TrEMBL record:
It catalyses: D-glyceraldehyde 3-phosphate = dihydroxyacetone phosphate. The keyword Cytoplasm applies. This is Triosephosphate isomerase. It is found in: Cytoplasm. Homodimer. The gene is tpiA.
Amino acid sequence: MTAARTAIIAGNWKMNYGPQKASSFSMEIIPRLGPLLRSYQEIMCILCPPAISLCSVREVLDAFPTPRLELGAQNMYFEEQGAFTGELSPSMVSEMCSTVILGHSERRTYFGESDELVNKKALAALKHGLRPIVCIGETLEQHEAGKTQEVIRRQVQHSLANFAPQQAREVVIAYEPIWAIGTGKAATGANAGQVTHLIRQLYREMYGQEAAEALRILYGGSVTSDNTSEFMAQEDIDGALVGGASLKPDFVEIVHKTIETMQS
């Protein structure tokens, strides 16, 4: 990554940790994250618990104020209010969070979310001052068929459309090859670097050089403290969206390794 872009390490807890467990885990890792984040200004962390646990984690964050340590939601709907049982509106999320994950492969695969729906959510998030982390990535079948570039191009062009110039600079993209999520088969740094370079090129075509340079691209897919340095060494990778390892103290070590890589 370049020094001009602040790195992001985001932890997606998925459907784990109810309010009590989320609170206790937050109290375990936040005091350890504090010294790291205070020691290095060019990195930030975002904790993304399940919706039911947002209040619990918010309370811990408020009790242990830490620079550049923020709260994020895992999903939201694009409508402001109404008869949408089980959904969260952008204004609800923005009361507690700075960030929202959108279009995660699990949302696309299990709940049928399309590029167009993800785009509506991203536009709604930006309207309410939320930082959207928009996830894209190819399946194993697409990867093995050599269709990675085709899939990525389509997802970027449709999931990330219609942004105003300022909005385009606020978006974060997470490249998550679906075949590497939770499988232990993380892509190599070189492979992830090639795809993230393509993403930045496509974004440049859509929104220009300034927006492309400001865009932060995260890698996600079996990220651990053992491989994070390999990904962070890539020019177009600006951080990680961490799944399973974000549920363990290893998340702190991932932040530590990221800082070491950026300082080297």
